[in-house]
């Protein structure tokens, strides 16, 4: 019996549309929805684009460079940076969300000739020395921000963070909100805050998130 690929496509589109509508009902107007497509096929990305999604996120360079050429939109890299992948990332991404050292400011600025939007990733991990999620210490944020402002090709958008493992997201995002308020006073032209994933985006929005990065709540569980 032949597989009706068109029917499968339409059923998947209905599923994505339902999930997308549910999420959009739960977020305020003006919050940027970035759909994280890691581990999902390009066909899903194309369906999402047909449903009106414009911003996509990837954690791995390989997936981003394979998917981005086939679907227009604003592509965000939000994974851990590696110096040997920077040139490739700069080719397909319009936004890099995970700058956490001045070294990467310099390397990315050299790796691209186009204008790139960037966020500084802030660590919300406890001060016990166990760094789980990455990011710059609060004391380093302004130094990194100034380096970005002095670069040729990078445009500072604001801050990004991931709630630490083993902590209530609302507590972590409350700290982040205070950090963000101080940052905006010093850098009023870079007011954005990227925080919140499928399991905690409501708490992130409550504490000032302007960009949320959702995967499973729209695309379903990852294999």
Average residue-wise pLDDT: 94
The radius of gyration computed from the alpha-carbon positions, rounded to a whole number of angstroms, is 18 Å
Q: What ranges have pLDDT less than 50 throughout 5 or more consecutive residues?
A: none
Beta strand count = 8
Question: Which structural class best describes the helix and strand composition?
Answer: alpha/beta
Instruction: Describe the largest sheet.
Output: 8 strands, parallel
SSE pattern:
HEHEHEHEHEHEHEHEH
Spatial separation of the terminal alpha carbons: 26 Å
Task: Provide the β-strand percentage band.
Answer: 15-25%
Helical residues, percent: 40-55%
Q: Treating each run of at least 4 consecutive H or I residues as one helix, how many helices?
A: 9
Biggest sheet: strand arrangement = 7-6-5-4-3-2-1-8
- Shape summary: globular
Please, could you describe this protein's structure?
There is one protein chain. It contains 9 helices and 8 strands. With 223 residues, it is α/β, with parallel strands linked by helices. An 8-stranded parallel beta sheet has the order 7-6-5-4-3-2-1-8. Strand 3 (74-77), helix 4 (86-92) and strand 4 form a beta-alpha-beta unit. The protein is globular. It starts with a helix and ends with a helix. The mean pLDDT is 94.
